[in-house]
UniProtKB/TrEMBL annotation:
It comes from Rhodoferax fermentans. Keywords: ATP-binding, Cell membrane, Membrane, Nucleotide-binding, Transport. GO terms for biological process: transmembrane transport. CDD domains: ABC_NikE_OppD_transporters. This is ABC transporter ATP-binding protein. It comes from the Bacteria. GO terms for molecular function: ATP binding; ATP hydrolysis activity. PANTHER family: D,D-DIPEPTIDE TRANSPORT ATP-BINDING PROTEIN DDPF-RELATED, TRANSPORT ATP-BINDING PROTEIN.
Length: 261
């Protein structure tokens, strides 16, 4: 199967003047940011601030105006947003692994489905490789979601995204439904995969410790607006200027980077 991009060629993303509106309600207002190839970018903010809507708009699941564009190396040809190759290159992992996996489908069928949609061959080898990559192994192939723990289910959700060989993962609160110890395991797996595959991440979380652990930079959102763009180093050193971000830090229990380390 041909790869969409050459190995080692990470892909980033640029969002410009993104605006999402439902009736009179503005969920995301004039939001712009760049995620460099191979970078891990976080979006934080209180509940309802528009974080998930940004991810949904990027992958075409929310009505938007503004532009979304992939960023690559000079001369690299990249698919247009909304096209089928774009939908393969940019994969989303949702918060609730139980809700996002079909309860009556085996892991094998869950992982085969995206391969069929995108017309990829070599199904068995790809499924086994994806299971190995998320640390589960082939023994999990014919199990059902209810036979898995929360952490194992989230690993299947990650495998389902990875099986299409994406370059960008959109992670919507990927560990918030998990116990603290399992949360750390899944975050470490994600970070390991990012480094090995040269992936770019956009991760939404209300947990500043989690975002700072995994992300290089982050955007703080409030009521659909961007409050500030920061590096994780700024956040860890409490170099934040906006009172809203300072309050988020307090709400995160004083914010301990070690909480997920
Ligand atoms: N399809 C929709 N129709 C109407 N309003 C919507 C729709 N989707 C989202 N919203 C509203 O947009 C706002 C932002 O929602 P969003 O899910 O992006 O917030 P969030 O920051 O991700 O919150 P949470 O952390 O609780 O998931 C919310 O007020 C939500 O009710």
């Amino acid at each position: 199967m041909p790869s969409l991009t050459s190995p080692g060629q990470s892909v980033g993303l640029e969002v410009q003047h993104l605006h999402v509106q439902y009736g009179d309600f503005v969920a995301v207002a004039d939001t712009s940011f760049q995620v460099l190839p191979g970078e891990s970018f976080g979006i934080v903010g209180e509940s309802g601030s528009g974080k998930s809507t940004v991810l949904r708009a990027i992958c075409g699941l929310a009505p938007k105006t503004g532009t979304v564009q992939l960023l690559g190396q000079a001369g690299q040809s990249l698919p247009a947003p909304g096209s089928k190759p774009f939908r393969r290159l940019v994969q989303m992992v949702f918060q609730d692994p139980y809700g996002s996996l079909h309860p009556r489908h085996t892991v094998d069928r869950i992982l085969a489905e995206p391969l069929v949609i995108h017309g990829l061959d070599d199904e068995q080898a790809r499924i086994e490789r994806a299971l190995d990559e998320v640390g589960l192994g082939r023994g999990f192939r014919f199990r059902y979601p209810h036979q898995l723990s929360g952490g194992q289910r989230q690993r299947i959700a990650v495998a389902r995204a990875l099986i299409l060989e994406p370059q960008i993962l959109l992670l919507d609160e990927p560990t918030s439904a998990l116990d603290a110890s399992v949360q750390a395991e899944v975050l470490n797996l994600l970070e390991d995969l990012r480094q090995r595959r040269g992936l770019s991440f956009i991760m939404v979380s209300h947990d500043l410790a989690v975002v700072t652990h995994l992300c290089d930079r982050l955007m703080v959102m409030q009521r659909g607006q961007t409050v500030e763009l920061l590096s994780s180093g700024d956040l860890a050193a409490h170099r934040v200027t906006d009172p809203y971000t300072q309050n988020l830090m307090l709400a995160s229990g004083g914010f301990r980077r070690s909480a997920v380390g």
